[in-house]
Design a protein that fits this description.
Layout: H1 4-14, E1 21-25, E2 38-39, E3 49-50, E4 54-58, E5 66-73, E6 88-92, E7 102-107, E8 111-114, E9 117-120, E10 130-131, E11 142-144, H2 152-160, E12 165-169, E13 173-179, E14 183-184, E15 195-196, H3 199-207, E16 213-220, H4 224-237, E17 240-244, H5 255-262, E18 264-268, E19 272-273, E20 279-283, E21 286-291, H6 295-313, E22 326-330, E23 341-351, E24 354-359, E25 376-380, E26 391-396
Helix pairs in contact: 1-6, 4-5
The chain binds ligand LQZAQKY5 and molybdate ion (MOO).
Protein name: Molybdopterin molybdenumtransferase
Pathway: Cofactor biosynthesis; molybdopterin biosynthesis
InterPro entries: MoaB/Mog-like_dom_sf, MoaB/Mog_dom, MoeA-like, MoeA_C_domain_IV, MoeA_C_domain_IV_sf, MoeA_linker/N, MoeA_linker/N_sf
Amino acid sequence: MLDYYQALHKLLTQTIPSLNKKRVALIEADHLILAEDLTVQYDTPFFSNSAMDGYALGGDIDACQEWKIIHRIAAGDTAQSVFLKTGEAARIFTGAPIPEGTTAIIQQENTQVNDNILTITSVIKKGQNIRYKAEELKKGNVFLSSGQYITPAVIALLASQGYATIPVFKPLTIYVFSTGNELLNPGEPLTAGKIYDANRYLLLSWLKQTPHHIIDAGTLPDNKEATEQALNNASQKADIIITSGGVSVGEEDHVHTAIAKLGKLTLWKLAIKPGKPFAWGEINNSTVFMLPGNPVSTFITFQQLVVPALKRLSGIKIEQCVPKAIMAKAMFSTHKKQNRKEFLRVQLQPSATGMDVKLLSHQGSAMLSTFTQANALAEIPEDTLVHENDYIKVYPLSYNFNT
Ligand SMILES: Nc1nc2c(c(=O)[nH]1)N[C@H]1C(S)=C(S)[C@@H](COP(=O)(O)OP(=O)(O)OC[C@H]3O[C@@H](n4cnc5c(N)ncnc54)[C@H](O)[C@@H]3O)O[C@H]1N2
Ligand code: MOO
């Protein structure tokens, strides 16, 4: 059985995005993925300007004790016809273009003005409070590369560069199935032997945070022919199919066997707890992620494996797809070594020295309620005991695709 890291590496390197592009208005681009490298259209700053409300001082500033104020320049003005010589100053405001000949800007709190003559009450250095043309971005350089996830910060930067529309990857179509004769939808009366479907609701609500087209494909019965037919039909339209349940070894588990028969089963079973029967494959041109049915196994394999792979398939750069972990101090110890890498639901709490990790009770793989108190998953390596105060690897839970 593959280890978690081997499986993650395989998923990230072998799920090759094959994406179409489209142009969208900048304001519609949040959560999408940039589809081309973009270059700086305008030097930033576009013109040298003042970082403070104050006075622009001309020429040799060390040679003067006082300056004559000869101009006034506000943001939005041009300073084209203005030139400052030694001993001359201009009243200037934050963001206003500096006149030629400016050596430094003195902020107004450090000045005195009498009869249009300026004296300063602090030391001043050459270049102080000047934001120089192109000091941040130079025209023609690539400033955002293809595969960049578009956050509000990226939108602001694109707006500042005058981009009204941008090239993005087209969203994917994702089908979500549950499997199992025991499943009912909330709202239906609960009867003997049945349970309510939790996994499809988990996956649908989580996937809604992405820009993709999400199709609620309903529940598959524990039936070989019906499973094969539904997966085959879905693969005609879906880029990605996600199922939960029916991937273990029982004779009612038909999902991975259907994929192996009709397509290709690339991976089945990992040395992780929970989530061991996780499977990944393809049918026609659809990538299929098959999650184990226990709700906690569904959650953990989705967060730790499918979200990274989905990011990659969405076109995000590989290094931005790897789940982020921090090291934090365990406030608990474990007493039994596991032969699989274990993911435990924990609470990360700030402490004087960093972050502490508190273990939550009720860790069974059917025990969904623990997730509402958990804000992270702790990774316990195989054949390892955790002792109190050990530093362990912890993955903060996140429901969006940006982190
Ligand atoms: N003989 C063995 N039995 C099992 C093994 C094994 O290795 N040998 N593995 C166990 C592990 S680990 C897991 S995890 C489960 C996974 O099994 P399946 O993926 O086949 O899932 P199901 O059998 O269909 O369901 C398991 C469990 O989860 C409940 N379930 C399923 N779907 C949903 C849903 N949408 N919402 C809420 N709950 C769901 C289902 O009723 C079962 O209780 O197999 C172990 N068995
Ligand atoms: O994935 Mo299973 O029991 O390891 O929950």
